[in-house]
Amino acid sequence: MNHKVDFFFEKGGKWQGALEQLRDICLDSGLDEVLKWGCPCYAQDGKNVVLIHSFKEYCALLFFKGALMKDPKNLLIQQTENVQAARQMRFTSAEDVAKHAKAIGAYIKEAIKVEESGAKVELKKTTKFAMPDEFAKTMKEMPDIKDAFEKLTPGRQRAYLLHFASAKQSKTREARIEKAIPDILDGRGLNE
């Protein structure tokens, strides 16, 4: 138990009971409890295995390499179509966690085995992500933007492409692109 993480469980709120149960199950797995991204994270030899987080509609365990795990009870959920490696196990009450406690423990053991194996999730190449027409046009008209974008890390490139493409209207995509140009030119990622 890492007392730097206690604040997360002491916040109260509608998920407190479920979160405390998830913490107990994670601690029973023998993983190290650390604080990552403001959430309790459970790691082995410094490698993240599972994270507890909460949302408005549910609380969840996030398995970092969930895409590689066996899912015999169909409990793992891909958050969005763009999430490649991680999978969530969602809960809506303390009773829900208690009902699945044995399965949760088994899934954590499976996640540990996946991490120990050294297996890696094969990530989709940035070129496989949709390039909004508005951004393709901008890069064609402004070669310095194209050069700067190509120098960004693949993760930063994907974040921009997903951000631009998620806008439903062309006008919104254009506004997002315009706003991002200075950051792209400075080699920064989205919201850095």
Features of the shown structure:
five-stranded antiparallel sheet; alpha+beta; 2 domains; 192 residues; 8 helices; Aspartate Aminotransferase, domain 1
- Cα radius of gyration in angstroms: 20 Å
Q: How would you state the average pLDDT, rounded?
A: 90
Indicate the CATH class of the largest domain: Alpha Beta
SS content category: alpha+beta
Cross-sheet strand order for the largest sheet: 1-2-3-4-5
Textual characterization of the structure:
By secondary structure, the protein is α+β, with helices and mostly antiparallel strands. Helix content is 45%, strand content 15%. The chain has 2 domains: 3-117, Aspartate Aminotransferase, domain 1, CATH 3.90.1150; 126-185, no CATH class. It has helices at residues 6-10, 16-28, 94-99, 101-117, 133-141, 143-151, 154-165, 170-185, and strands at 32-36, 39-44, 47-54, 59-63, 87-91. A 5-stranded antiparallel sheet has the order 1-2-3-4-5. α2 (16-28) crosses α4 (101-117) and α5 (133-141) packs across α6 (143-151). The radius of gyration is 20 Å and the shape is elongated.
